[in-house]
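Before the break, one more example. Copy the sequence into your notebook; we will annotate it together after we see the structure.
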Amino acid sequence: MALTLVEASKLSNDTLLSGVIETIAQESPILQRLPFIEIVGNGLTYNRENTSPTATFYDVGDTWTEDTPTFTQATATLKVMGGDADIDNFLKSTRSNLQDLEASVVQLKARAVRALFDDTFVNGNVSTNAKSFDGIDRLTIAGQTVSMGTNGATLSLAKLDELIDTVKGGKPDLLLMSRRTRRSLNVLARTSGSFLEADRDEFGGMLQFYDGIAIGLNDYISDAQTVGTSSDCSTVYAMQFGSGALNGLTAPGGLTVERVGSLETKDASRIRVKWYASLALFNTVKLAKLTGVRP
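Here is what the structure looks like once it is written out:
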């Protein structure tokens, strides 16, 4: 069973762990929605569907022809991510009347883990960093790529609709874009005489929707990509989560907070935030991207 990070935290009695997960998910639209599959072992080998089977009509006595889907075998390997947070014992004893020093230090480390995952989710590339995993930019195939033009162009609602339609088998669950692109989309919506739908997420933050699809912001989608002669381009991603689509992978227990204990070389105690995680795309038509989006 695949659970989001937030839902999985509800099954934990560890207050510190629940606080870390809430901190991570609260600032990441990806981690609020991406379901994670727990796997035993260091990786998962699975069949990624490339083309679906077809069906047709037949007359009585016709010869039936066989047609099967095609698959590509893919392997997603769990990667180790995290960091250590040292809490100075002197500061903990003398400054705790002002704030919970331990909670503050661990919260900052949790945000660093969230930033690393959000960056790798988009830009991860095992060919340049074997310690990471491939992100959605690498997982998107050529046939699922929509272009704004040879040298890019300003965003249009028609192109955004084309991107949405490129994701097959239902609407995308999330449109992921940079802040600059979201501003352009707001201008487009107002120009057309309408506004983007808005609601609150489970943490109370404002969330915008386009055509009923949640809009997520990612600070690691570059606005300086080169397309043709233009070097000020960005990318918008559309994705569907869940069974047969895009999923996160995690070791049993998911994200963990480990108390390493007192250190020998300094008067401090150490807490380790660690996560064995990766990403798996079970069907190529569940992920698409729009390239060459200019300001």
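The mean pLDDT is 86. Residues 144-240+286-294 form a domain with the capsid protein of prophage fold fold (CATH 3.30.1930.10). Try to locate both features in your own notes.
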